[in-house]
Amino acid sequence: MRFLITMNMPSKSGNPVHQIVAEYPVSSLEELNDDLATNDFIEIEEFYKNNNDEYYSTGKVLLNHRYIGKVKAFVRNTHALNNE
């Protein structure tokens, strides 16, 4: 499953937080949470977006749970809620 993960650590451009798109072999947020709760690091596959808005793998990386601020299931097409 793919996730959008907000990391509480500086990006290479100097921003205090950054987001990554990651794939991890679970089928829900709850399963990911269980793995994060029992492991200091998990191995994810990281994805970047190219100029055509397509995502490509940049390979595997170990992710430390201590720097994660927020995790959402990754949905490619999102729409703002209409608060009428």
Total separate domains = 1
Percent of sequence in beta strands: 35-45%
Number of strands: 5
Major sheet details: 5 strands, antiparallel
Q: How are the strands of the largest sheet arranged? A: 4-3-2-1-5
Amino- and carboxy-terminal Cα gap: 33 Å
Query: Roughly how many Å is the radius of gyration?
Result: 14 Å
Average of the residue pLDDT scores: 90
Helix and strand string, N-terminal first? EEHEEE
Please identify the structural class as seen in this structure: mainly beta
Low-confidence stretches: none
Query: What general outline do the C-alpha atoms trace?
Result: globular
- Share in helix: 10-25%
Please tally the helical runs, counting DSSP H or I stretches of 4 or more residues. 1
What does this structure look like?
The chain is mainly beta. It has one domain (2-73). It has 1 helix and 5 strands. The chain has one helix at 29-38; strands at residues 2-7, 18-23, 41-49, 55-64, 68-73. The chain has a 5-stranded antiparallel β-sheet with strand order 4-3-2-1-5, covered by helices on one side. A hairpin with a 5-residue loop joins strand 3 and strand 4 (55-64). The mean pLDDT is 90.
Question: Outline of this structure?
Answer:
With 84 residues, the chain is mainly β. It has 1 helix and 5 strands, in the order E-E-H-E-E-E.
Write the layout of secondary structure elements.
Blueprint: E1 2-7, E2 18-23, H1 29-38, E3 41-49, E4 55-64, E5 68-73
Antiparallel strand pairs: 1-2, 1-5, 2-3, 3-4
